[in-house]
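Aim 2 progress update. The chain analyzed this quarter is reproduced below.
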Amino acid sequence: MFPLLVALCLASFPALPQTKVTSVEGITEYHLDNGLKVLLFPDNSKPTVTVNMTYMVGSRYEGYGESGMAHLLEHMLFKGTAKRGSIMLELRNHGADFNGTTSYDRTNYFETLQASDENLRYALEMEADRMVNSRVSRQDLDSEMTVVRSEFENGENSPMRVLQERVLSTSYLWHSYGRSTIGSRSDIEQVPIERLQAFYRNYYQPDNAMLVVAGKFDEAKTLGWIKDTLGTVPKPTRKLIPTYTEEPTQDGEREVALRRAGDMQAIVTAYHIPAGSHPDTAAIEVLEAILDDTPAGRLHKALVDSKKAISAGGDTYQLHDPGLLIFEAQVRKEGSLDDVEKTMLSVIDGAVKEPPSKEEVDRARTGILKQIDLALNNSGRIGVQLSEWQSMGDWRLLFLDRDRIKNVTPEDVARVAKLYLKPSNLTIGRFLPTDAPDRAEIPKTPDVLAVVKDYKGNAAVEAGEAFDPTPANIDSRTVRATLPNGLKLALLPKKTRGGTVVARLDLHYGDEKNLFGKGPAAQVAGAILMRGTGKHNRQQIQDELDKLKAQMNVSGGVTGATVSINTVRAGFPDALRLAGEVMREPAFPESEFEQIRQALLGRIESSRSEPQAIVINALTRHLAPYPEGDPRAVSTFDEDIANLKKLTLDDVKKFYHDFYGASNAELVVIGDFDPAEVEKLAGELFGDWKSAAPYALVKKSFQKLEVVNQVFEAPDKANAFFAAGTTLDLGEPDPDFPALYFANSMIGGGPQARLFRRIRDKEGLSYNVQSEFAAGSTYSFAQFLGIAICNPQNILKVENSFKDELNQIVTQGFSAEEVEIAKKAFLEERQISRSQDQGLARTLQRNAQFGWTMAHDADLERKISALSAADINAAVKRHINLSTISYFKGGDFKKAGITQ
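Predicted structure tokens:
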């Protein structure tokens, strides 16, 4: 497959036409003679390698009539080149986790693969090929345009997203940042292929690109492969013309209103700020956190704590050119939007009149720096994040911004608040004339190369070990134990990048009878645990986590609860102690209970007009026909609202005291820790915590369902949602489970799957189409589901194509070649998933719950490896019965002229 590259591997590499430019914290920059910028970020602690190719072109570079062109081209580059077919299919066949994204200043393509010479060489060769040889043909555009339009329409379903777009377009009179990255419908539908091809040839060139290779690889060999693939692409003779539009200083408040169907009110405010590379941005990031953080943020306290709004947040748009500081809030339909607007503006204005305290600045700075530090521990994640910073001018801005944040003072925050939080710099909802304009002059974008010229950065993050994620090695490294109360431990110590540790504690409680009618109380009980304990209030919990460089999430439902922790070696013992406190000593604050209830009510009310929520609710209710109150039942929106309105805090407390305990629980820890210390600490924290109520796994039982085809009208929604589903009488112990589980990956499990290739790639009807197969772990019940989004006018085409393709699969089956290609990709994907500690923790937890080891996973993979096409086709034919599948569709079909 790679004869030239294989030959190069066996020879010594000649002198390379490259220049080493700089090295910062383990990342080294090289320049090739053709202008390509190369960053190498070796990290042997993960058995994966990430290749990220960034082109410095985004929606900022689009002219009138070209809106959405950069994003459309991102899609086109997965269609293939002169010598290769679908790149999506190729990547899936290599077991890659991949994507492409488009922003205002850049477009990037990344793939994470199992680390091997073959995979890395493939990725580099493929990126070199599609850089200049992509087809970008009329035929591909005709099919992909409808896919992108479907994505556009899906965004149009969200009033909040559309409101944000309207605010941006009103904030910017001339600069391209005022246009949505996805573009306008007319430009998407009518873009001439010649303009798209010219755009591609102009910007997709080595002198406008940056390649990042991060993960496990040999640097010397990789540089050689880069030279012989991307290095051979000629440097273009054309000269790129930089964008030059500068947004004029805003000279008064601006107004925009959006009137559409929906069940939630919202408000968005925006202030112009300097470019992301400007020194003021660090203080602005801290200012944003002080105002919008949860729960200590000033906006959260003034709007959410007071029950005026159900949520409040914000964002700093750090871009190549001057960006925006945005704040927003969501309000229930019966709430007062005027009151929320007045309160929000008063709080924002208060940042000028009442400058932030040292405590507020320290807290915000600590939280931001924690997120940066945790991100730096993940080479794959940073390898992709570097795209954003390079698009602002240089990748080293990532580290420079971190250092600037460390030095932000209360005086800095007060200064930027005064500079930019001015009424004349505001876009919101009203115009107020003034005799003495006070305007915010936005500084010019700095000379970034001069700013970062001598920057050296800190010491590189400590490296981890090269860990082999095979089931046998995982089993040999895992320490298992059971505490006296029944809590099972699965501890996997290993050296990780930055000394990271991930952990999860899963509690299982109740049974089919004693959980009846407890759903609402269980949901709120899980949500309220992080809101305060007998020793720490909600903010103090967050402050402790920030000091420990830890992330902690707690969730709970009718049959169980989960705590997840992500931190570093030094912070893990105290983070686990804090988790024990959260789970065992909740304070159940009345104010937090009401906040949670209002937020849930708002979310449910909003769902009543959303096609996806309506259809999924109908599908899941159909597949689980249990009486209201049964822990397996799915409630209607009206039932959920009624149950929440009558729920009391005493109900929540009673559920917690009746059911929470660790008698039926698993604690999994993976990373840099001492197993003996953690086992001892787990015993101290949870060893005497027993569950009061009897426990038995709540199992779904197979029952023959009436077949239905239901249609739901969702007025004023641009995108429709399609779903199909049926139940099967088998579980994981069934001999046919491995065949069906694997077959689903070929039916609708990704870009290589039949449904995706038919409905998205060939017919261009949907942006997203997929299927899912899940079965009971120890009991006989399974579900097969399919979903797709589409234009309401195409809903019947999607349904017919789904039925036809599934019928072909059942009647004609898969070819032997198709099975072998898919099998290789499937098994590599599982290997990659085991290299991700959070996913591996979930696997170890499930194994501990059912008394399995990793031999269970290895056995499943052995069975799948041994399957023939005939085995798979026979299993599919035995169990997938098209006559039992029900269909559900939601959308504005009346407006589209569709009659069912």
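The chain has 34 helices and 23 strands. The first helix runs from residue 3 to 10. These observations will guide the mutagenesis experiments scheduled for the next reporting period.
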